[in-house]
Amino acid sequence: MSDNTITLLTEDASASLPGQASGEDLWFAAPELERATGWKLTADGFCRGSLCIPIPRGREVEFTRADGHVNFAALARHRGQALVHDDDGSVWALDASTAVRSATRTLLQAPDFTLPDLNGHLHSLHEHRGKKVLLASWASW
Questions:
Q1: Which of 63, 67, 89, 91 could join 21 via S-S bond, C-beta 3.0 to 4.6 A?
Q2: Within a domain: residue 21?
Q3: How far apart (Å, rounded) are the C-alpha atoms in residues 93 and 80?
Q4: pLDDT by residue (tens digit) across 44-91?
């Protein structure tokens, strides 16, 4: 399996890095994953700052390979995060963590986003805080 350039979209960043998409699994060399996301493979599991997510015993092959690659999709699934991809597996988008989603629901406040109008002018939701907003969307598919 050879590395291809994968675009990874997260809550706060995007990165293009060499990786291997295989079905619903997404493999990166451990140093590349750390550079792109901050998640580092340690003896305690996957760690980012003081947060460490242990790899479940007996399931190590789902998360790591002998060649030094780690399965970011397995980590996302283990954390309860959706990780979706386009048809050819070249672009992957990571959903917010369950803690962030729960906090957003508790606040009953939509997350901020920015979209263009028909004339290309950008509008952000935060510009309308405190006002009623109707967002109509449409897609051809």
A1: 89
A2: yes
A3: 14
A4: 999 999 999 999 999 999 999 999 999 999 999 998 888 999 998 999
